[in-house]
Amino acid sequence: MNQNDSLGLPAALEFKSWGYKHASRPDFAVSGLNLKIDAGQRVLLLGASGIGKSTILQGAAGILGAAWDETVDVVDHDATVEDADGGQTQGRILIDGHSVRQAQGQVGLVLQDPDAQAIFQRVGDNVAFGPENMDVPREQIWQRVRESMEAVGLSDIQLHRSTTHLSGGQMQRLALAGALAMRPGILLLDEPTANLDPSGLEQIAGAVQQVLDQQGSTMVLVEHRAQAWMDMIDRVVVLGCDQGKTDEHDRKTVVVADGSPDQVFIDSHIDFAELGIWVPERYVQRAKNHTGVGQNRCVSQLGESVEGAPILSTRDLAVGRDGASIATGIDLDFYSGRITALVGDNGAGKSTLAMTLAGLLEPVSGYVEASEVLVESGAEQARSSHPFEWNSRQLASRISYVFQNPEHQFVRGSVLEEVMVAPLRTGMDQKAAEERAQRLLERFKLSQYSSANPYTLSGGEKRRLTVASALAAAPRVLILDEPTFGQDRVTWNRMVQLIAGLQADGVCVIIVTHDRELVRALDARVVELIPQDSSGTWERQESAVVPDASEAYSNGSLKEAVQDSCEKETRISVQAMAERVEDPRPASHSAYIASINPAFRLIGSFVLALPLFSSLDWLSALTALFIEIVLLMFAGFTPWRIVRSAWPLFVGAPGSALAVLLYGKEGGVQLWHWGLITVSERSALLACATALRILAIGIPAIVVMLGIDATDLADSFSQVLHLPDRFVYGGLAGLRLFSVLRDDWASLTASRRSRGLGDDNKVKTFFPQAFALLVLSIRRSTTLAEAMEARGFGSSEPRSHARPSTVKHRDYVFLLICLVVPLVSLGVAWLRGTFAFFGN
Amino acid sequence: MAEHHLSNRNNTTSPTIVNEHRFRWRVVDIAVASVIGVASALIYWLVALLSAAPFPILEGIVPGLGGLFNGFWLFAGPLALIIVRKPGAGVYAEVVAAILESLLGSQWVPVETFMIGLLQGVMAELAFLVFAYRKWNLATTVLSGVSSAIGCWLYSFVTHLQAINITGSYGIIYVITTVISGATLAGCLVWYLYVAIAKTGALDHFESGRLVRMSKSSK
């Protein structure tokens, strides 16, 4: 390792007539781009949605197409090369004069979604992954991991901790650390803070600032809201497209403006609003920023709504999942025609509260009380005033919940049908439902897509569609979870106008958000969820917050704040996400078994099981079972723990035994006969042997395997069994998604209830929901592949391993024991003459 | 060393243009195949909950009728194959699902899920292998479901039902119901599932997905 390599010197990035066409699109996303970024420059890359900013970063990071085919330099700039993804590349991208593939590891990419960039379960393994893929020697990997974790301010987090308990800001810093561990000369950031709360944003911007100061790396940032980053930006590049004169498909990506922030942001020729860009505040005086939908709202709000009774209230409400409350004593009132924003850090419990209000989660204690007006409105007569007790149709026509991820909600194959679901469900006839749907689509500017598949819309369109579908049932209360997540200013404005319009219609709107601009633009009432040990971050400068407010609310309960104006703020104290300390999980209840290499544990249970299949007799099975239990007790298991671990066997074994008893081979005295059923002495004996053998095979298999960590098993597969890393670690990364998909399933179930589809029988709802899960899982895995490739994974180059997996003598001894058990048992059966090959 | 490293990579990759990427697995192929395995494991588990009651009832009506449920546990292999279209996709998805089930440790017996997963995967693979992985249509998918079903039956027969006469009433009915279930659920249904998933645009990274989308847009 020489000096240069360990420092990750800043590198230059150059696009030469570069373009890329995605396989499924008719046009090039980017075409003929010429752009040179010098080493050490910090560039903010701007441009309207769809101009291909993400494609440009992906290209520079070398993750477009299956890029290993990019073997020859394309000399002719007009030539296009097709990759295994079916995409087409033209021109070249050079990093310090080398092609992107040669420069792998020189470029670190951080993407928008923090969750999608965590590849493995443990924190440290995620950071070590990049260096592993670059074949960095093991000792140096952990050195790099520690340095990177420190650089992003995560050095106090245990490396073996699970990523599931990190906040959004921590997750994104972890992604940054993962990129830094590769010692990149260029850092590419693709809207790294779009999904984060304000404190997460500060964390990331601060970490990047520190890294740039220390290492002087080149940086390219794509971000619609660059406010927090302006101090480190020294160059702003605005992209546009130059429509070809002869052919409309022949458009070129061109640099519209290029210069220092001071030069670009005061350039009056650029319409930043149209480009979807928020002009940083310091330049705002010169360029008008946003339209301010909520202006003067205060008056109308006071005029219309405060006089009426609340439409939805909570009394002494405690919310939480699985019966454990995260906030208690919540008393809130929600009024028609008013907008309330539930705010607070990622993970504070905003969605939990919102879903409880929406009748999708059961209150831990206390009530969510619907007003008489709300109960009387909508389809069917609702007997209860508690939304959670309503059936799905009653709920859909009264309170509607729009999920953060639109794909959790889609249930039909076309946009029009999607909007018609709720009206049809709540008893409207086909024609009226279609009319209403058409009207909504028009209002939401989606008419041209009415026959399109909902999944194929763009992000902003999907979001609007879910709101339209929710409104189709004419609910009096609409709850929106993060309606402006990751949107550019154009789509953002459209959403703000829609929400403001709903308010005018007299809908009670509740938004879960961390978007300050949104709250300001809508002039919404703020309800803030604050962890017990911290003070709120949402004091608006213009609002007069009572100085001792935090003291008043610190006892874990909530009181209504000042009632008299629209600048009302309410705080709810929630349980802090404790700074967790996790002990490493033991790999087995037995210290002996825990010390065996995972692959040997797996092979051992095969070796033990397979020979036993050769004979179906009671003696060999019983002998094996007896020896196994004795051995397991020596290894430290109590009989009770063995039974408890292997419980499924005690359900499964009798079933198989019963089939053999009733329909098995006959012989000896016939004990019972009825129809096709014949129970004989022989079938009874065989049934007995079947049950015993299932236990003899199953018990050690379960007990020996239980507790193996997936990562350890993968390491062992790779280093001991020498299975290809691409498959082993690809599979391991897939396994992590299991818990994500389980949460997806819960969201899918809740969204169907909210849409009026929850009353159908289980079998009928199962198939469409399983379909939605599969679509989600494929989407998640494509993003996963992208994240893995961004860390240099996937080439057939040698890679190193951060975690050693070793084989010792005791592993072979273990294998020997596993072989002896069945051999002895079968030998005993042979000697006593009970051995029966395949039960014959 | 950095220089050396770079030039080294250059040497190993530059001599030929590899155009034969038909059988080469991309990272996205691996990720999608493994996540199909993971999602399937979740669905299997949910089906197990749903079928816990009806299974014994069916078995009670006609012995072996419960085999109709077996197809539910077979679709991962054919689905991964028809989407990813690489040799080994079926085996890989089934093995990932089996490993996951083993590590979860509550539902099934590790060694057994592993073996049955492997067997079902290999059998699902056979249907496409005999056509040299060139025929990807409804017929081969149904065939894949059928062969996978035979694998499933074979396994449970060898491990749990050795004492049952294949020619006896239970033996025959169980084979027939399992194969019917495999053909419909793991074959026919999987094909239409794949087409429906492709229409969402989720498979645009795959040739399998682009074929469906293109034929749709040309209509």
Automatic annotation (TrEMBL), chain A:
Pfam families: ABC_tran, CbiQ. The keyword ATP-binding applies. The chain crosses the membrane at residues 619-640, 646-664, 684-707, 812-831. Residues 13-266, 312-556 form the ABC transporter domain. InterPro entries: AAA+_ATPase, ABC/ECF_trnsptr_transmembrane, ABC_transporter-like_ATP-bd, ABC_transporter-like_CS, ABC_transpr_CbiO/EcfA_su, ECF_ABC_transporter_ATP-bd, P-loop_NTPase. Keywords: ATP-binding, Membrane, Nucleotide-binding, Transmembrane, Transmembrane helix, Transport. Its main location: membrane. Gene3D superfamilies: P-loop containing nucleotide triphosphate hydrolases. It comes from the Bacteria. GO terms for cellular component: ATP-binding cassette (ABC) transporter complex. One of its GO terms (molecular function) is ATP hydrolysis activity. It is found in: Membrane. It is a multi-pass membrane protein. Belongs to the ABC transporter superfamily. This is ABC transporter ATP-binding protein. It comes from Bombiscardovia coagulans.
From TrEMBL, chain B:
Signal peptide: none annotated. InterPro entries: ABC_thiamin-permease_prd (IPR017195). It comes from the Bacteria. The keyword Transmembrane applies. Keywords: Membrane, Transmembrane, Transmembrane helix. The chain crosses the membrane at residues 30-55, 61-84, 91-108, 114-131, 138-158, 170-194. Pfam families: ABC_cobalt (PF09819). The keyword Membrane applies. This is Permease protein of ABC transporter. It comes from Bombiscardovia coagulans.
